């Protein structure tokens, strides 16, 4: 590739860091992702001797699990938005499933870091120090309460969480089932939302961190998926699980709502970045291949129709990358007034683009695009999976249109 | 679901065939395809005891494999209306895209055999018809590791470039050809075939245009196979390399021994069009399968408490899928119908009942080859005759076959992507076939030629 | 350029019609369309002395206007194979998208008239056939300012919503209906028509389903017209409002006086399908025109010193345009053919030669209306009969007409956009027709119903 | 609209200015554009009493013609990139043809401002002071010399300019014809490139500012176009036009090349911004209409399929806007190392998006989308024109692929 990198990125310190990240994503993440994808049983992905653990440990060796956690809790929160974005994009470039898994692990601890509870703060400190991957996070998406759009009633629909919590003195007793949770089988801590249940009635909602080694917690078998096979996903079941109230991050509808909204936009943006990275990976592969593959007596890149196709891909990939950057910049300057419409648009466009670009790249590869020996068919499956990940794109789009 | 049969030409005979094929497809092929798709190692697909062999055998038992063989050799070609093969392909594609191709290709060398000047080779057709044990499996071996699209572009002027000369060469020595080189991993039925329609380089100075076609038994000394290809979609379809090292092939197996036949002329394009119109039929059927799955799902599942099929965005998506599928199928039908109704009129239907017809054809072809080799004038006349500008309607038809393949496969893929989204998160689960259908359709955009390359190769005539 | 006629059904008679229509189209319609398109004020299009009137008159002189009128009234319907009207629409669309619609619509009230129980009204058909001066011009007046898509959705269940009730109402008083309200500016031939197929609200409580159909002379007191619509494309096509103020319409002009006919039933959808399948034929022809312009241009112009037609990106684009155009035309053909060959078999062809046939039909219809109004049981039976689930093949066909329109118009637009790019900067110049063709095609995506709305309305049956 | 503005724009001073610009674009430019578009003869657009002059004067009253010209020459060069972009985007939102015309007028003077020639500097000063529109600029695009891509020869192709210049003592004698030049009929000054012709041989190239009131200059009749009818375009013919050498901005191939490259990327970026603005205008119209138009008993916005369609439009428009911002930011930080690939991508994607979004918006409007009483059919024609403006998109894309 000869095309210019046009990101404005002036922080010298973080440039050194990005070099390390780049090495990690190219030399550790991507090859591991390819191997893990080949395993026919998703249980093998999280096995003791699986390459997965090497990836997670290398990630932590670079302190990347400390991102967005304040310094006094052992974290690294002073990262500029561009560095943070570039790290995630490189990770998406290497392996979308692994990228999502590692970000999902960090998230509960990032949230817990906002709490004043000493118990939670200690958990965060422990996580920051844990480079052996003894602590792994997971979380369950929370529905933002939507005003029913366009209708004249204007009523808020009430929150629905599959987990119910019965307060009992200084403890909460949890019951419920969470499905398709990333990291579910390997996680040690879960960030969940729940509905309070008082004498059989639900009233209000809360958010808590739940250690998953408590009695009553069980997990389903890892899901077998078409793509993102490197990402462990499964069901978590709570059966009379007792947690101290100190593990609660929020216990008020409006706070929970605010948290959900931030989490939602943040997650959509992260997915937007990861799949911009994946799109770039597909484009890079296609461009390289087009310059190497000889047909018609010359590299296929020499044909005008191939040039046109590649340039269109380039334009779209760069646009999706720019889109994520604009929103990341805004979000970092306005951490408390998230744009839900733009968050959804970032996820929507990046994942649609990922599917289209990886499909176009397969066409450039011809038959080799379909073969498991080459990287594209996996990239395509990973992209395809994103279409229905964290909300089905069309459904999310229709909901998010209410913000227009 | 299901559709209104707009085709007024489909009578009783064809309806029965359609029904027969659909039943076999849904009861045998579809479940086998789902099972084979799940196998992690493509070697398991062709292992002894694999359900693949049941599919092959039961296909032969239905007799549907006889459709491409003339009556004179025990086949049913000529006894059925011209749309028969198209309808069969649709139904097989509906059942399983990959297995449809496997079954279709498995008859190729035997269907070609009837044109051979050699009685022994012609008799392969009868042996195939009678082979209910599926001991004879054909393949069509063109594509090579370094020449994929090159073979497609071979039908255009660009194919005369010597840099495009085939990797597999056939050098004549006495009564034999010595074959060296290899075919690529994308040859369908490549590692299980017993016979091949084999494209070989005869005159390397002419590039792709210098190739001829052999009908090659694949048990000759010096022939070996690669490992079955591990791939994204159409996983039940076996594909793999065939490697030739100093293989001695008797000249009687060389169906087209003269170079220049498969060149920038209408023969090559007609050839390409025939193959691709079969793809068009197969994948218009496959597209219908994705649509039907999406419809069934939408009519039986809810989203936010409301039936999917009642939601405006889903209705719109489904109707647009329906539009594409109908247009693709009817276009493919019209294209195939034109070709078959021009080539299988009553005279040829009658003629194909007698072995003598084929004996005479073979003799005529042989004499032509002899004259072609000996006399420049014959060669020049042939080239002029095969020039697209002077060719008949039929000869101009090739590009329509290509257009039909492009339309059907892109419809199949787009419809599968839309269906995937209608299934939502459930699309990821192996409980539903839509993920598989999407992967199968994705493969079809490249199968038998990358769509853009096919378009470029067929451009000349428009 | 030009194309291989894949349609094996087109014989001598149809070929002659095609040739006739093409000649008229290219010599009269195409140049007139270009001239009319340039007029800045749409009032000039219909001014005295405008070339529009030459087109109308010469069309009548060719006799092509008789195709939609049965033999009993002097027309040629029934004497021609079933594809005739489709081929005519293709050729008119090829010549000029806007004028094609104008000519097509101009026969509508007269083609409908033959179903009237009134001899006077039935006789309009004969008058129209004989009117070589183009003094009788028809229009089809459905769409209203506040109800555009509503009329389309009217054929689905949603159309029963009383909020969708027509703006133009007809209230019966004795032997007359009193008409009040208006039709929208998108009524084709709206300001020049002498007769209308007029959809009126009979029972406002039933929404769109409560509408009936009148055949309305447009010179009645109280009828006025808006200014001709000034618009993006199809500028030669006159469109404009028709306003009704206390118009007294004798009941003999009310062709369908009972409400509920044009409702969530197969009649409405078949109606919609018929109109839309004509659009499908017209715009598959229009798409072909853009393709042919692009091909001619590419073969005669260079870019960077090389013929456009020799450049890979242009070749690819052209072949893909070709693919879309062929698929759209053949799909449209198949759809129309199914309808016409089911409705115009030898029996109906013979029957349509006699005026008595239509006298009887009219009488039967009238009796049916009377029974319908008087007996609940007849009404309920009718509704059940017209329910899509129980309907015959033909009744299920409507959605195919819609699918054909969607396919053809989107093909026409996409092909024009691609052609525009092949022309490059020259596309902006009025020297070439591609800019106009693009605008004409763009309009077709909305004409006769916004494509997405048509899809939603036709969804039920799939 | 309720969707958030997520631009990061901190300069308070320029915010006040943008308010003025916003008023100008909404109240002056857009209505004038609609009227001018209706004129059947393009000669009427530039007539003495034409509304065009009100627009141009209002533009200058806001000093917008001084953008990107150094302060010491009377200009306003300290505008931050975001303000400059927002001005152009608003102008594109109001009327693409007028926006392009006004930017084309500024460009020659912006270029001349980089020259040390006192004669040229004085012209620039005069332009900055001219609020009566006595001076209007125009320019002819210059071909950047391309290495022939993918070929093995590696030779530079030689520059081709339709204008030849014969040096004669301290003067140059110009001959040639420039076609489809924006502002050609109304311009007083033209920035052009030419090839030197010495004793019948062409050798090297140069760039000069040419006053158009010199003897030997003539213009063709204004072009009649499908869209952007508000933008005057015509041919300029030079017949033995003599200019003093002081009017030269460059007379060396490498300098000319550098200038061409900068101009090319800058122009592509500007077009990218203008058509992002036009796309946004089409989207805004569609969104508003969808909330007002009643069908099926309610606003069409209430239908899920319309929401989906609008949200997809929103995602794409915002992405194209972000894409232009990323490049503008890069260009402002790296004024001397332009990314040609990204410039072309910005123009390509913005114009393709403009066509698609305006076409989708027409579908939302239904029949009204086609009628001249409503704004969309004009927006669509303006967008369609951009496809072949300043290079046909596909041709530009294929050329620009050589930078990948």
**Helical stretch tally of chain A:** 11
User: What is the overall pLDDT average of chain A?
Assistant: 92
Give the N-to-C terminal Cα separation of chain A: 39 Å
H/E series of chain B, N to C?
HHHHHHHHEHEEEEEEEHEEHHHHHHHH
Based on DSSP secondary structure assignment, what is the total number of beta strands of chain B?
10
Shape of chain A: globular
Quaternary class: heterotetramer
Instruction: Tell the overall outline of chain B.
Output: globular
Main sheet of chain A, how many strands, which sense, barrel? 8 strands, mixed
Structural class of chain B: alpha+beta
Question: Could you outline the blueprint of secondary structure elements for this entry?
Answer:
The complex is a heterotetramer, with two copies of chain A (404 residues) and two copies of chain B (462 residues).
Chain A: H1 12-38, H2 42-45, H3 51-61, H4 81-94, H5 96-112, H6 118-129, E1 137-139, E2 163-168, E3 171-182, E4 189-198, E5 201-211, E6 217-219, E7 233-244, E8 248-250, H7 253-292, E9 294-295, E10 298-299, H8 304-333, H9 340-365, H10 376-386, H11 393-400
Parallel strand pairs in A: 1-4, 2-4
Antiparallel strand pairs in A: 2-3, 3-7, 4-5, 5-8, 6-7, 9-10
Chain B: H1 12-38, H2 42-45, H3 51-62, H4 84-95, H5 97-105, H6 108-113, H7 119-122, H8 124-130, E1 138-141, H9 149-153, E2 169-173, E3 176-183, E4 195-201, E5 211-217, E6 223-225, E7 242-250, E8 254-256, H10 266-300, E9 302-303, E10 306-307, H11 312-343, H12 346-351, H13 355-374, H14 376-385, H15 393-396, H16 398-423, H17 434-444, H18 451-458
Parallel strand pairs in B: 1-4
Antiparallel strand pairs in B: 2-3, 3-7, 4-5, 5-8, 6-7, 9-10
Helix pairs in contact in B: 1-3, 1-4, 4-5, 4-10, 10-11, 10-16, 10-17, 11-16, 13-14, 16-17, 16-18
């Amino acid at each position: 590739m000869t095309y210019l990198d046009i990101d404005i990125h002036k922080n010298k310190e973080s440039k050194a860091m990005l070099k390390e990240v780049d090495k990690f994503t190219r030399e550790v993440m991507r090859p591991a992702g390819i191997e893990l994808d080949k395993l026919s049983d998703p249980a093998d992905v999280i096995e003791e001797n699986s390459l997965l653990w090497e990836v997670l440990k290398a990630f932590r060796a670079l302190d990347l699990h400390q991102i967005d956690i304040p310094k006094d809790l052992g974290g690294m929160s002073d990262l500029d938005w561009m560095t943070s974005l570039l790290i995630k994009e490189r990770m998406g470039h290497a392996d979308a499933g692994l990228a999502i898994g590692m970000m999902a692990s960090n998230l509960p601890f990032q949230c817990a870091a906002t709490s004043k509870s000493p118990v939670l703060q200690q958990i965060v400190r422990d996580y920051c120090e844990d480079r052996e991957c003894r602590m792994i996070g997971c979380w369950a998406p929370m529905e933002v309460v939507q005003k029913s759009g366009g209708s004249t009633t204007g009523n808020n629909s009430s929150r629905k969480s599959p987990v119910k919590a019965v307060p009992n003195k200084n403890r909460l007793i949890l019951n419920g089932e969470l499905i398709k949770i990333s990291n579910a089988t390997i996680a040690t801590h879960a960030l969940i939302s729940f509905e309070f249940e008082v004498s059989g009635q639900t009233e209000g909602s809360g958010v808590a961190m739940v250690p998953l080694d408590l009695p009553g917690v069980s997990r389903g078998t890892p899901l077998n998926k078409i793509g993102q096979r490197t990402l462990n996903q499964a069901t978590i079941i709570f059966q009379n699980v007792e947690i101290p109230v100190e593990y609660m991050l929020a216990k008020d509808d409006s706070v929970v709502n605010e948290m959900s909204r931030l989490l939602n936009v943040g997650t959509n943006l992260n997915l937007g970045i990861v799949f911009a990275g994946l799109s770039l990976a597909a484009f890079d592969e296609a461009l390289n291949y087009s310059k190497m593959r000889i047909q018609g007596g010359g590299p296929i890149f020499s044909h005008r129709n191939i040039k046109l196709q590649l340039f269109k891909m380039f334009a779209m990939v760069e646009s999706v990358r720019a889109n994520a950057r604009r929103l990341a910049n805004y979000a970092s300057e306005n951490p408390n007034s998230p744009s839900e419409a733009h968050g959804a648009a970032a996820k929507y466009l990046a994942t649609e683009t990922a599917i289209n670009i990886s499909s176009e790249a397969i066409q450039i590869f011809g038959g080799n695009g379909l073969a498991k020996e080459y990287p594209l068919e996996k990239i395509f499956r990973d992209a395809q999976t994103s279409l229905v990940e964290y909300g089905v794109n069309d459904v999310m789009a229709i909901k998010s249109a209410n913000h227009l | 679901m299901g559709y209104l049969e707009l085709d007024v030409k489909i009578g009783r005979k064809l309806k029965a065939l359609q029904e027969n094929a659909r039943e076999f497809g849904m009861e045998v092929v579809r479940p086998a395809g789902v099972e084979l798709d799940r196998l992690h190692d493509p070697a398991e697909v062709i292992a002894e005891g694999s359900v693949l062999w049941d599919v092959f055998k039961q296909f032969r038992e239905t007799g549907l494999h006889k459709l491409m063989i003339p009556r004179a050799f025990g086949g049913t070609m000529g006894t059925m209306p011209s749309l028969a093969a198209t309808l069969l392909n649709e139904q097989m594609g509906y059942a399983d895209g990959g297995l449809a191709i496997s079954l279709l290709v498995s008859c190729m060398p035997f269907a070609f055999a009837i044109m051979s000047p050699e009685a022994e080779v012609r008799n392969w057709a009868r042996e195939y018809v009678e082979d209910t044990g599926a001991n004879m499996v054909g393949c069509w071996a063109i594509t090579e590791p370094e020449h994929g699209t090159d073979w497609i572009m071979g039908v255009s002027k660009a194919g005369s470039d010597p840099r495009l000369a085939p990797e597999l060469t056939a050098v004549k020595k006495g009564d034999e050809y010595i074959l060296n080189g290899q075919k690529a991993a994308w040859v369908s039925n490549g590692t299980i075939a017993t016979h091949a329609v084999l494209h070989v380089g005869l005159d390397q100075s002419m590039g792709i245009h210098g190739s001829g076609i052999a009908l090659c038994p694949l048990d000759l000394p010096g022939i070996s196979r690669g490992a079955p290809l591990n791939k994204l979609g159409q996983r039940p379809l076996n594909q793999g390399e065939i490697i030739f090292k100093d293989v001695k092939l008797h000249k009687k197996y060389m169906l087209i021994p003269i170079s220049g036949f498969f060149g920038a002329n209408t023969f090559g394009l007609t050839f390409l069009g025939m193959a691709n119109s079969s793809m068009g039929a197969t994948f218009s059927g496959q597209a219908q399968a994705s649509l039907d799955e999406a419809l069934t799902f939408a009519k039986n599942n809810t989203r936010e408490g409301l039936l999917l099929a009642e939601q405006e965005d889903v209705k719109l998506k489904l109707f647009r899928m329906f539009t594409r599928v109908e247009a693709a199928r009817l276009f493919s039908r019209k294209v195939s119908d034109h070709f078959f109704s021009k080539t299988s009129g009553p005279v040829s239907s009658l003629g194909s009942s007698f072995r003598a017809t084929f004996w005479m054809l073979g003799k005529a072809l042989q004499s032509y080859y002899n004259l072609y080799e000996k006399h420049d004038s014959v060669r020049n006349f042939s080239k002029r005759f095969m020039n697209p500008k002077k060719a008949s309607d039929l000869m101009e038809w090739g590009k329509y076959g290509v257009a039909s393949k492009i339309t059907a496969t892109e419809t199949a893929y787009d419809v599968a992507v839309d269906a995937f989204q209608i299934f939502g998160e459930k699309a990821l689960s192996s409980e539903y076939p839509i993920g598989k259908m999407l992967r199968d359709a994705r493969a079809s955009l490249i199968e038998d030629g990358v769509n853009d390359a096919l378009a470029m190769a067929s451009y000349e005539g428009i």
